[in-house]
Design brief:
By secondary structure, the protein is mostly helical. It is built from eight helices and no strands. The longest helix has 42 residues. The radius of gyration is 17 Å and the shape is globular. The mean pLDDT is 84.
Length: 195
């Protein structure tokens, strides 16, 4: 196992930007108001398990249906691009379905809000560039931060305020846009080398 601090930090920042737990604080608070209680521990653990399983099984699933990681990473870069546009422009391209009180902790919080299409795609895209152990550390770090944010979401909203959350969302949106472009360029080049 070769742990690389630069890879861990980069993977952590990319996942943090994609998951956007800070930007999702208003949604978390809204869920708390509607459902009364959200199990932060359960939501964090379920999201972490989904992310880790997909990190290991995602490539096998792709191979089974005949798609290589570079092609998936290029497709993932488009998803990241659109997520970044949502964050920067304040528009909604992905419509979330209604949820019930019984499943609020798992759906939509753990999936697809935390471990959603964007973060799952990002994991496989990261796997094309970084070592698996560094990505796992980045996932664990993100799960810890998700848990802390879920536990303290009301306090964070009071401290930062709605404008602060909007600014953070836009900053991470720009970072994510740059990451999407880099991911696209790197993997499209790898695809042309295979041809």
């Amino acid at each position: 196992m070769q742990f690389n601090l630069k890879e861990i930090f980069t993977a952590f920042m990319i996942l943090f930007a994609v998951i956007d737990i800070i930007g999702n604080i208003p949604i978390v608070i809204d869920l708390r108001k509607k459902m009364g209680h959200i199990q932060s521990e359960k939501a964090s653990i379920i999201a972490g398990v989904i992310l880790t399983l997909f990190l290991f099984l995602g490539k096998s699933i792709l191979n089974l249906i005949g798609i290589d990681v570079n092609s998936f990473a290029v497709a993932g870069s488009f998803i990241l691009f659109f997520i970044a546009l949502e964050m920067i422009l304040g528009i909604t391209l992905y419509k979330q379905e209604e949820h019930t009180a019984m499943s609020a902790t798992v759906f939509p919080l753990a999936f697809p809000l935390i471990a959603g299409p964007g973060s799952l795609t990002t994991l496989l895209s990261l796997r094309a560039e970084f070592r698996t152990e560094n990505i796992i550390v980045a996932v664990i770090m993100n799960v810890i931060i998700i848990f802390i944010v879920l536990k303290t979401s009301s306090a964070i909203e009071r401290i930062i305020g709605q404008n602060g959350i909007n600014i953070i969302r836009k900053v991470f949106g720009v970072v994510l846009l740059a990451i999407a472009v880099k991911l696209f360029a790197h993997n499209i080049k790898a695809l042309f080398e295979l041809i």
